[in-house]
Amino acid sequence: MEARWSKLMRVMIFGCGYSGQAIANSYQATGATVCGTARSAEKASQLTHAGINGFIFDGTEFSPELLAQLKEITHLIQSIPPGKDGDPLLKLITGRLSALCPKLEWIGYLSTVGVYGDHGGRWVTEETPGSPILGRSINRIDTEEGWTHEAEQADVTVAVLRLSGIYGPGRNAFVNLARGTARRIIKKNQVFNRIRVEDIGEAALFLGHGRMRGIFNVTDDEPAPPQDVILEAARLMGVEPPPEHDFETAEMTPMARSFYGANMRVSNAKIKDAGFRFHFPNYHMSLEQLWRDGIWRG
What we know:
The protein has helices spanning 2-8, 18-28, 41-49, 64-70, 88-93, 97-100, 135-153, 173-179, 197-209, 226-237, 254-258, 269-273, 283-292, and strands at 10-14, 33-38, 53-56, 75-78, 106-112, 123-124, 157-163, 165-167, 184-186, 194-196, 214-218, 244-246, 265-266. By secondary structure, the protein is of the alpha/beta class.
């Protein structure tokens, strides 16, 4: 019965990029029909070549083909980050979600743990009030609430997936070391959580398959200083790690420096208590697998 129900799932992933394609892979493995959007015809064609029905969506309007597909979907996943003017998809569906997607059962909104703000290295959970310190994270809070409201109005279940720093094949410390762009920035007591991209895919499948609602932190078990990850990758590669740079005096772009403004340890207990199990619960075993299997380049 479960396999048969999976084949009835029709999934639309808005913004089918790095995380979106991992989500598509997880759903496709169950037999679900998966569609995804990209901003250009070339990228939409690449999605189709990968077995994902590709559609063009630039945030301004739905094409007739995309509108027709929306009539059939059961699961909608929004991966497009909000811009200065908010979430373009949310603006287009506000007040007409039921009319656009009459068969819709579940929405997954990809957000960020950045909504928690700075907690001085203390643990945060889904119950921790959001206190974002960056404009892009403030927009995320508003967008989370917007999607929750629209879903409730349409009697559709919605889950918010708050993601930590995303890495995986093609995007990781090995790649940065190989390019010569890896840096060991030392800020006292600073820690970050991370999440392997394949675990994002599996978490989205788990929550969507169960049509679960609420906010879920999708993050690893081991918040750690960023320089430790670089050291571990260099050890596995058998190369010298880059020199240390003090955060206070290091040359960094404003964007890069801003990431160090939020210091916290993010708990993933809620989604695990719901029954989900991470394939890559910490960076040690994840990096080892990327290196051992030769997939770190992507």
